[in-house]
Amino acid sequence: MYGVAVVGVYSRSSDYTIAILSIAIGLFIIYPAYLTFQRYRRLRQIKLRRVTSMYTLPIAMSPVEFSYIFSTKVARQQLYATLYDLANKGVVRLYQVSGQEMVEMGPRIGQVTSFERLLLNYIARSKSASSVKNILQGFTNYELSSGKHIQGSRNYVFWWLLRENLRTRGIIEKRMTGKYTKLVLYYGFLASFILSVVPLFIIRFMQMVNFGEIDLGGLESTLKNGLLFGVIIFLPTIIVSFFLLRLSGKMLGRRWIVTPEFRRYLGQIDAYREFVRLSCKNSLEYSDSELKKEAIRKTKPYAIALGYIKGC
Predict the structure, then answer these.
(1) Measured between alpha carbons, how far is 98 from 284 in angstroms, rounded to an integer?
(2) Most confident by average pLDDT, 35-49, 83-97, 117-131, 228-242
(3) What digits encode the pLDDT tens for the residues 201-214?
(4) List of residues 6+ apart from 70 with CB closer than 8 A
(5) Domain boundaries in the chain?
(6) Contacts for 14 with CB less than 8 Å, ≥ 6 apart
(7) In sequence order, which ranges of the chain are alpha helices (DSSP H)?
(8) What is the rounded CA–CA span in Å between residue 179 and residue 256?
(9) Rounded distance, CA 200 to CA 198, Å?
(10) Taking burial as the number of CB atoms within 10 A of a residue's CB, which of 4, 33, 73, 105 is the most buried?
(11) How far is the C-alpha of 129 from the C-alpha of 115, rounded, in Å?
């Protein structure tokens, strides 16, 4: 009788409390821990090895193409990283004059992308060296090979050209909005219904087993309470899912924007990002000083694009 009496005291408020706790633990503890573990699995070997040769990317990617996989944001930092990368290739020259960073065309003019050409056009128009700050800001009216004009801030036009270049190369999907919306809704559904109903139902069932009395009416009531709570919490969990997906993209790469063919490289790309970060922090042991200098020189544009080093 005691077991039956205890089972009978279950209420909607106590069911909601359990559901809230299970959702909070799932979203804010278990999921971030899972992301951290996955990232640790990818990167643990880099910190343990002595660097005897340069790490390389599985496919050729400029610093901004690389950083786009982790954050689609394009700001002044990414434009500066592009200039620094072009300077490494000898396409432009960067130097200081009275504390101000200047840029001018260099001795080499190789094959460049459309977003790189956007910056080079402004440098080439000037008969003398230009201030880097002037190159990175302003309004742009860029004409494509098709005759179409792209207008807006330099950041926006650069971002548009970068995105189209990645699509043309088959690195990112051409239609991402619908796919991303479905993914957010899917995560929201998992959080609001699965994380609330399943743990709640299991906990109530185990409590009944512990007291030696299975109350089918109580289980039905618990199931209804879990589903009702899922409906109530659905919209907030969609919002939370949006930010958790951004966290996932920042830590492991935005899998949902890349093509299936490119997805297999994400582990190697993340490993190279860690190599860039550790090189920037001078935390790696190199086999010789020349290799160290080469690694720092080649990874610096990537470190700027990723935000590890402050740019212009």
Answers:
(1) 34
(2) 83-97
(3) 888 888 888 877 77
(4) 249, 250, 253, 254, 273, 306
(5) 2-51+176-252, 63-170+281-306
(6) none
(7) 2-7, 12-25, 31-48, 63-68, 76-88, 114-125, 132-135, 154-168, 177-189, 195-210, 216-252, 260-263, 266-280, 289-306
(8) 7
(9) 5
(10) 105
(11) 20
Of 222 and 298, the structure prediction assigns the larger pLDDT to 298
Confidence of residue 1 (pLDDT cuts 50, 70, 90): very low
Q: Token match 């409390």: residue? A: 17
192: helix, coil or strand?
helix
pTM, rounded to two decimals: 0.80
Dist. CA 85–CA 301, nearest whole Å: 5
Going 15 to 20 to 25 to 26, the CA torsion angle's sign is: positive
pLDDT tens profile 174-198: 887 777 888 888 888 888 888 888 8
Give the integer Cα–Cα distance in Å for 275 and 306: 12
Q: Above 60 in pLDDT, residue 4?
A: no
Residue 63 exposed, middle or buried by CB count within 10 Å (0-12, 13-18, 19+): buried
Is the distance from CB of 273 to CB of 37 less than 8 angstroms?
no
CA distance 110 to 119: 15
Q: Give the separation between CA 3 and CA 17, rounded to whole angstroms.
A: 22
Backbone φ and ψ for 210, nearest 5 degrees, come out as -60, -35
Q: What is the pLDDT of residues 219-237, one digit of tens each?
A: 888 888 888 888 888 888 8
- What span, in angstroms and rounded, lies between the C-alpha atoms of 291 and 121? 34
